[in-house]
Amino acid sequence: AMEIDKEETGEKQDISGYKGVWVLAEQRGNKLLDVSFELCSEGRKLADELGTSLSVIVLGSDVKEEAKELFAYKADNVYIVEDEELKDYRTETYTAVICDLINEFKPEIVLLGATHNGRDLGPRISARLDTGLTADCTKLEIDKERNILLQTRPAFGGNLMATIICPDHRPQMSTVRPGVMEKAEPDHSKTGEIEEIEVEINAENVNSQITDSGKIINLKSDLSDIDIFTTIKEIVKEAKASVNLEDADIIVSGGRGVGSPENFELIEELATVLGGEVGASRAVVDEGWIEKPHQVGQTGKTVKPKVYFACGISGAIQHKAGMENSNLIIAINTDQDAPIFEICDYGLVGDLKKIVPLLSKAFAELK
Amino acid sequence: MNILVCVKQVPDTDEVRIDEENGTLIRDGVPSIINPEDKIALEEAVRLKEEQGGKVTVISMGPPQAKTALLEAYAMGADECILVSDRAFAGSDTWATSYTLAQGIKNAGEFDIIFCGRQAIDGDTAQVGPQIAENLGMPQITYVRGLEVEGEKVKAKRALEDGYSVVETKMPVLLTVIDGLNKPRYPSIKRVVAAFKKEDCIKVWSTDDFEVDMSKLGLDASPTQVYDTFVPTNEKKGEFLEGNEKEKVEKLLEKLKLEQVL
Ligand SMILES: Cc1cc2nc3c(=O)[nH]c(=O)nc-3n(C[C@H](O)[C@H](O)[C@H](O)COP(=O)(O)OP(=O)(O)OC[C@H]3O[C@@H](n4cnc5c(N)ncnc54)[C@H](O)[C@@H]3O)c2cc1C
Ligand SMILES: Cc1cc2nc3c(=O)[nH]c(=O)nc-3n(C[C@H](O)[C@H](O)[C@H](O)COP(=O)(O)OP(=O)(O)OC[C@H]3O[C@@H](n4cnc5c(N)ncnc54)[C@H](O)[C@@H]3O)c2cc1C
């Protein structure tokens, strides 16, 4: 048996110099994703509680105009790093540049979107900087006594919530799924000066030269271990990508209670009348009644529309995990004990095949 | 080709039990399976071996009972299985898990491709793959849903929220895979029998058997700590709308008008 030698525990990192909240904004095609503004809004709250500043970092090739908008979400500082090499997300370049920036400026908190790219980048940064990363946070708070970040996240398919802390390492890093945090109303009277940071990147090595408010800081990124880079050959948008549940104001979702693939037309009709999108439970995706991009839940999309209709959906914990933060939930189900009713605002007990067409008719008449 | 697959044994149930003291999961008495995406990773590895020749090594970090998952991996076509298991690893977060696995992998040899699942269904973080890649200083491609391997070249279809990108790199590389890449085969009965006869198809390594820095292991070394766990509740109080179908619909419309949501 092994004995753990307490003498050997690693040296504690000096965390005293770490100040400020950072958001790593994400762009695709030099357009900022909504999650960046959501994180900016959330980051503002955390920064205010800590009495510190909020900075947003944007990497891309032509992002200056887009980045200005971040001031309307009350960022104190917006740093942009523009380079052709940073046009599309790549693990190596993004990790190298961001780790350099973190080492230089020492933020205490770093937030990034739990997008496919964010979940590629976040762990890579945390491993390089030897700090913790909490995945898919649904709630972020400051523990006022210890001035540390309390990061709450679902685990075990949504069955368990855990509050995670990272007390002795900095920065404290969290990823947050799109649609989870509330986006504040933009205030366009707030403006600021964008600060440009220059980097020099070549294929075999990333050398960042950081120019910050007149000062020139020379940073050397050590990529000696990584001399082989990935190349992005192409980026393809797929047709079914037109399902945009994350941005929809209204979602009408159908579950197994819809009964058949044909009956999904009832759901689609209501969605069309309301100008909303069609969502689904996993049960009907597995049945093949509708495609996967429509799936809401733990293994599907996390959504937060103004109104969410759950039609013939029982309300399994994995489904709830993806929609329970919707502003208003309306549930239609024949079973008055269905768990979905526990989280809805309005419950209509009854057969969706009758109720949904009546709703479509009533809403159509309203217009 | 030398291929390695990281396989995690996970509980196969919605039933959650927690060790109140340190907020970790209790696994005893809960049926265990190979993490579903790790099966996809293993299938892809075995297919590559069958096409191009080579060897598939599987590594898992976990308690002694994780051997069952490795036996299944062997039955699916793995050639060699390694279980890194030691009390010192208990309570590891992803940072400590990936350090330990990376050290285990270094000890196991040099690999052209390392496969991981994108995400484990219990911890749900999707962090261990990229962190192993960083620890080993190799490129990574995550969310792989299509793969071509030709000579030194690896070309992957990497899923994005609204499509995919095609990413190319040279070996060695770490790939994390998702559902849809392939359909994992069933374990072969013949190989199950062989595995039971061939006790040494699973090697078990403790901290004595490979090089690890003791200060980087387990709960104490983990930068993140579980501070609290709770079962989610929702305090929302819903209102049932009464009447026949038509009346219910009318009532709903009134409510929505009142709340000015439409
Ligand atoms: C690891 C894991 C991940 C998962 N991820 C997801 C996920 O991302 N999203 C997800 O949705 N699920 C997910 N699930 C599956 C989840 O556990 C449920 O099985 C699923 O959500 C059930 O779908 P459902 O509500 O449509 O079907 P059911 O549970 O079968 O419910 C059907 C409902 O329809 C009602 N009904 C029947 N007929 C009518 C009618 N005529 N009119 C009105 N109501 C009617 C019934 O009363 C019932 O409540 C996951 C499961 C696991 C284990
Ligand atoms: C409630 C709860 C919440 C947690 N939250 C966090 C958190 O936010 N951040 C954090 O750093 N840690 C967290 N942890 C700890 C984390 O779950 C463990 O470190 C776990 O061992 C690995 O993480 P994962 O299950 O998320 O794996 P993932 O990163 O999701 O796994 C991805 C892939 O890595 C490979 N892999 C992962 N673990 C192993 C293994 N043991 N052996 C072989 N291959 C493996 C597999 O191929 C797997 O498919 C949490 C633990 C609990 C109990």
TrEMBL record, chain B:
<dbReference type="InterPro" id="IPR033948">
    <property type="entry name" value="ETF_beta_N"/>
</dbReference>
<dbReference type="InterPro" id="IPR012255">
    <property type="entry name" value="ETF_b"/>
</dbReference>
<protein>
    <recommendedName>
        <fullName>Electron transfer flavoprotein small subunit</fullName>
    </recommendedName>
</protein>
<dbReference type="GO" id="GO:0009055">
    <property type="term" value="F:electron transfer activity"/>
</dbReference>
<feature type="domain" description="Electron transfer flavoprotein alpha/beta-subunit N-terminal">
    <location>
        <begin position="22"/>
        <end position="214"/>
    </location>
</feature>
<dbReference type="Pfam" id="PF01012">
    <property type="entry name" value="ETF"/>
</dbReference>
<dbReference type="InterPro" id="IPR014729">
    <property type="entry name" value="Rossmann-like_a/b/a_fold"/>
</dbReference>
<dbReference type="InterPro" id="IPR014730">
    <property type="entry name" value="ETF_a/b_N"/>
</dbReference>
